[in-house]
Write a structure and sequence with these properties.
The protein is of the alpha+beta class. It folds into 2 domains: 126 residues, no CATH class; 114 residues. It is built from 8 helices and 13 strands. Helix 3 runs antiparallel to helix 7.
């Protein structure tokens, strides 16, 4: 079914408030920005998992309820279909439980068992969507490590989603050669919120994974393969958040201080 220009509407980023100023007020305002991208990150994560395991993308198709809970409305999903960013099909119960089977839906009508996957253009769109995670941080300064009560901008980390690079000053801490959706989401969250001492776990819940164990695994991955070991990521002790600190030449951490009003 072909969509009209009116049905297709503007790009998803525009409809999500691309030009709308970021809301301030701590983690609540930043969370509003982040929720716009959670569903896209879920779809991108599914694509990356399929690529990593050499499986069909449909083995990791996301059902409509999961995407609704992540923040997509039916209208948003229809826009994505019209733009050619996602495909959808109805999941049917297979004869065996070792595979998933689907029946093409077509059009813009969804069913409670409708599932979605990214197209090739949708993957590009989702990766570009991660750039918006840095928009909120551009309007306020990061409460990073300080010296004598003054913020030291050179010591504030910077996550570049275009280059997939994490930097401190001129030093490249990590450069991703392959997609790492969970690590990238955590770094994007820190960047979006201005690199506070701690952020809540931004990884969306998954019914087949233990959230605390997944967070622990991702934190360990963030600390591995650093070119310059200037940053250490830690859990918050409750399995619900991530902290970061600078590391000196002796391997000792220096906790960043929150900026004062």
């Amino acid at each position: 079914m072909k969509c009209s220009r009116r049905e297709a509407g503007e790009d998803l980023q525009q409809s999500a408030g691309k030009k709308r100023p970021c809301q301030h007020g701590g983690s609540k305002g930043a969370g509003i920005c982040r929720r716009k991208h959670i569903a896209l990150w879920l779809l991108l994560e599914a694509f990356d998992f399929a690529e990593e395991l050499h499986r069909s993308i449909w083995d990791f198709a996301l059902d409509i309820e999961e995407l609704r809970k992540a923040g997509f409305s039916n209208s948003t999903l229809r826009r994505l279909v019209c733009k050619g960013y996602v495909e959808h099909a109805r999941e049917i119960r297979p004869a065996d439980e070792h595979s998933r089977s689907f029946r093409p839906n077509g059009g813009l009508a969804f069913h409670k068992r409708t599932c979605f996957v990214l197209t090739e253009s949708g993957v590009d769109f989702a990766r570009k969507g991660r750039q918006q995670a840095t928009h909120c941080s551009s309007s306020h300064h990061a409460p990073g490590p300080q010296s004598n009560g003054e913020q030291t901008d050179e010591l504030v980390p910077k996550w570049d989603p275009d280059r997939l690079e994490l930097r401190v000053g001129k030093s490249i801490i990590k450069k991703f050669q392959v997609p790492a959706a969970n690590q990238e989401l955590i770094l994007a969250t820190f960047e979006e919120e201005g690199w506070p001492v701690r952020v809540d776990d931004p990884l969306p819940p998954h019914p087949d994974q233990d959230s605390k164990r997944r967070l622990h695994t991702t934190i360990n991955a963030l600390n591995r393969n650093q070119r310059d070991r200037l940053i250490r990521f830690r859990g918050d002790g409750h399995g619900e958040g991530i902290r970061w600190e600078l590391v000196d030449s002796t391997g000792n951490g220096r906790q960043p201080r929150a900026s004062t009003a």
